[in-house]
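dumping this here so i dont lose it
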């Protein structure tokens, strides 16, 4: 035991030696410590791990030394995990945290976020960052288990604290740890360190999807979105809650949501994301940009720039909805131009910059290749003079095209004197010649006319031609009305009354037959006295009103009801 403590002190003293002798002394100490009995190592593993971690912190630039210390640390951690982790965190605390009391194992699992209050030099070495992430994962699991066990032991029926409260507290704690790691990895320059952190975040997202949603609804730095989407494979699941994230009212969350949506659909250009972009992202962008077009506030300019960039990204990822992106840019430009007509000069300059930004976005959307696509220029960086000149030229062209409201064309009142400028009907208008009327355009080709006949317009002929086809027309007063039936007479070409049209019975018809006697009705036995009925029997208004067959009184309407009563 005494030899072990002396060896631990030698490790501490070797850290003050020269850089050349330090790695050799530390490696020798690790080899000697491995030869001690297991009981001795289990009792002193915490102190020995703390000395090794402190030496690794001071020599973090040496990859060979940190690699040996990492392997030795995992061996010591297997002997006594809680003690080794607690003393490791105590050694790596930041200078400000060093002034506070030392942390015990219970303090760490009660507050796992205290692990991330460490010296920034830890993230300059991949081996040290690996050790730190191992301690953090272990502490989060211990905290989750301990809090649930305490709640199960002390929970009372009807108490204030419920099981859902404990679960929410655990999820918020783990989401906060992920957010702190995202902020810390932004300062890391080692690619291996960044990869380790992103793998840790990916494991947390796979473990609980709720943590992923909480992290993104709490938001983080927008500059880290591209790295998260590129290195965390589980970020594709963000498309499930992007519609909810887009409707947030805070400008910061809107900016974050648009950047995240654009990055996700660009990284994963699949059919579901194309529908998301067409039905959710682009309509939301159009609604927001039309409302804030021409604004000069910092927050709205940032939101506008992010949305314009998202339009270009979506049009690049999905070629089939490029037309929708172009129409969106045109709609935003129209809103900015309309707002410039009713604003002051200062606001007019802002609207001009917005309109020119829409033109640059439209050019980027319509570019066929990435080389032809110009780089996006933010709204505030656009040249104001050039933008105002372009806007003035556009407004002048709108005024020349029409004087109506919003540039609508003016109605033509010179063509006629009717109401609303409608043309007057000319009294002495002359028709075009007959040759021009007959040569109307035909929509049928020559083969179709030969197969199906001439077109409808070509089949119309003047009356003179049609009369010539029927034959010569007789002069008035000498019309040939055909043979006259016996018993009929004409006076000066006039047709007699309808009664005289009835030929006498037994007359010979043109077909060689004889006419039957006239029809008689059932009441009088004579011909029908009603003129124009042609001898047919007149029918009564209603069957219930007619006379009874037995010659009795008229039947009432309730006869059927009376018969039913008698039969009953």
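and the seq i came up w/
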């Amino acid at each position: 035991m005494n030899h072990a403590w002396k060896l631990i002190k030698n490790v501490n003293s070797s850290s003050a030696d020269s850089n050349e002798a330090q790695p050799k002394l530390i490696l020798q100490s690790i080899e000697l410590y491995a030869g001690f009995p297991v009981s001795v190592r289990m009792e002193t593993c915490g102190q020995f791990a703390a000395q090794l971690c402190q030496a690794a912190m001071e020599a973090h630039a040496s990859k060979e030394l940190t690699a040996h210390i990492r392997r030795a640390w995992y061996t010591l951690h297997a002997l006594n995990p809680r003690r080794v982790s607690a003393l490791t965190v105590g050694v790596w605390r930041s200078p400000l945290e060093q002034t506070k009391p030392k942390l015990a194992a219970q303090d760490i699992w009660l507050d796992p976020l205290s692990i991330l209050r460490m010296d920034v030099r830890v993230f300059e070495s991949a081996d040290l960052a690996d050790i730190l992430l191992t301690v953090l994962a272990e502490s989060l699991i211990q905290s989750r288990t301990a809090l649930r066990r305490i709640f199960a032991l002390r929970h009372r029926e009807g108490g204030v604290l419920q099981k859902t409260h404990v679960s929410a507290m655990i999820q918020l704690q783990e989401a906060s740890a992920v957010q702190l790691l995202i902020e810390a990895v932004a300062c890391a320059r080692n690619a291996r360190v960044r990869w380790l952190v992103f793998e840790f975040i990916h494991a947390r997202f796979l473990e609980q999807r709720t943590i992923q949603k909480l992290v993104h609804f709490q938001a983080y730095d927008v500059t880290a979105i591209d790295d998260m989407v590129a290195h965390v494979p589980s970020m594709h699941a963000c498309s499930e809650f992007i519609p909810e994230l887009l409707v947030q009212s805070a400008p910061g969350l809107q900016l974050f949501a648009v950047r995240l949506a654009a990055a996700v659909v660009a990284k994963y250009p699949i059919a579901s994301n194309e529908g998301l972009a067409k039905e959710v992202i682009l309509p939301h962008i159009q609604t927001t940009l039309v409302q804030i077009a021409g604004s000069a506030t910092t927050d709205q300019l940032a939101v506008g720039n992010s949305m314009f960039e998202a339009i270009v990204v979506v049009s690049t990822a999905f070629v089939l909805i490029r037309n929708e992106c172009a129409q969106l840019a045109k709609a935003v430009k129209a809103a900015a131009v309309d707002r410039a007509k009713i604003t002051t000069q200062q606001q007019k300059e802002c609207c001009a910059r917005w309109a020119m930004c829409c033109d640059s976005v439209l050019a980027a959307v319509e570019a066929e290749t990435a080389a032809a696509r110009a780089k996006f220029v933010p709204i505030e960086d656009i040249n104001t003079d050039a933008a105002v000149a372009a806007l003035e030229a556009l407004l002048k062209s709108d005024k020349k095209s029409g004087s109506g409201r919003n540039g609508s064309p003016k109605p033509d009142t010179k063509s006629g004197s009717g109401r609303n400028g409608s043309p007057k009907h000319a009294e002495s208008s002359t028709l075009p010649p007959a040759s021009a009327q007959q040569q109307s355009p035909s929509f049928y080709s020559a083969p179709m006319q030969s197969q199906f006949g001439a077109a409808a317009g070509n089949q119309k002929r003047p009356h003179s031609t049609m009369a010539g086809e029927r034959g010569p027309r007789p002069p008035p007063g000498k019309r040939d009305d055909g043979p006259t039936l016996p018993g009929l007479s004409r006076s000066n070409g006039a047709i007699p009354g309808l009664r005289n049209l009835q030929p006498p019975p037994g007359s010979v018809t043109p077909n060689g037959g004889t006419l039957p006697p006239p029809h008689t009705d059932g009441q009088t036995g004579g011909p029908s006295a009603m003129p124009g009925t042609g001898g047919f029997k007149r029918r009564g208004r209603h069957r219930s009103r007619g006379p009874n067959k037995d010659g009795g009184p008229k039947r009432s309407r309730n006869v059927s009801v009376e018969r039913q009563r008698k039969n009953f």
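Confidence is low (pLDDT under 50) at residues 403-409, 413-460, 485-501, 521-536.
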